[in-house]
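User: Show me a protein chain along with its predicted structure.
Assistant: Here is one chain, sequence first, then structure tokens.
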Amino acid sequence: MKIVVSGLSGCGATTVSRLVGKKLGIKTINYTFKNISREEGIELEKIQKNALMNKTDFILDSNIMKIAKGNFILASRLACWLSDYNLSVWLEAGVETRAKRIAERENKKFKEILHETIERDKENSERYEKIYGIDVSNHTFVDLIINVERFDALKTAEIISKSAKGMKLKRNSFSRLIKSRIKNLKF
């Protein structure tokens, strides 16, 4: 079973994927810029700001593709684009809801986080378009879109777990494109 869960910052992909992994008894993969920040000893904000120049996305996505083997649930901004899957899920929430969640999680002011979230969404979208040719606002190929403003993490995990049962493996043409672009880089 391979389940991929994507969404923008603050949508709850990490929490939901852990719940689904636990419920289905499969490993959860959630490798992000935060992991690279810890591994490299570089501030997260610096990594995010310089992601395009220092090819951090390619390193991140290459590492994800290496560890996404066997049965798993993968939570990543680009999870729906990175791997073959039995079920692909996009978690949807408005920017204000996401900013509120991030502000609460990080114990920061809402207005500050709202501004940062809007900017990060814009920068990420532009970067993914530039490096991979991916439009992260296009979810027409995704199997399941869940409005997480209507469902809490437990209900969302339940929907995903039930939906994944019996789904056949789908080859993902986006993942081959991304692998090809990463392979052609020297980093």
